[in-house]
Amino acid sequence: MDEFYSHFIYDENGNAAQSGVSSAQFVEDVDKDPVLIFDGLTKNFRYPGWRLGWVVGPKPMIKCMITAGSSIDGGTSRLAQRAALKALEPHYADQELRALRTCFAAKRKLIVNGLRELGVRFPAEPNSTFYAWGCLDQLPKGLDEGHGFFRQALQRKVMTVPGEFFDVNPGKRRTGSSPFSQWMRFSFGPNLDTVATGLMRLSEMVREHQK
Length: 211
Description:
By secondary structure, this protein is mainly α. It has two domains: 23-88, no CATH class; 103-210, Alpha-Beta Complex (Aspartate Aminotransferase, domain 1), CATH 3.90.1150.10. The chain is built from five helices and five strands. The chain has a three-stranded antiparallel β-sheet, covered by helices on one side. It has a two-stranded antiparallel ribbon with strand order 1-2. The longest helix is centred in the middle third of the chain and has 29 residues, at 90-118. The protein starts with 36 loop residues before the first strand and ends with a helix.
């Protein structure tokens, strides 16, 4: 179970959820149940530069992973590990994660409402992580498909990701255009001012194509 985004959770109104989620609540015996839980400081705790993560699971599996990891990169520095102990103290961690959900809930509302005003459709609003998956089919011609939108937005220094990049089609066995060609993934990971600036630039872009 990959739980790197497990604390980015919002309720049905888009507000910060009271707590994160974890599959650990379903593990009865950590050494017997065949479950590996991956987490780290990069996403949930917003410390990407530390490159520190952990795994919870049966001891034999953990031992194999330690052996493989030490052969690949030597492991995380002791300085980072000691600093992480402070970040993971229950009281401090809970406080930080509550603040994180509150901050990201505000950015989520901003980007979903702002993009919807531009004509982007959200059949399902995001209730986790910090990405919004929207459909462009109601936008002006030239912006109503992923690659065109991407190129135009990039000219305005706004980075978006065409939905086609997430189309799972092993071996290209499915022919024809991607069912995600008119979809786009938008991120509200940056700070609030940056998200607002991006929305302003996208709004200007859409208005120019409506003329």
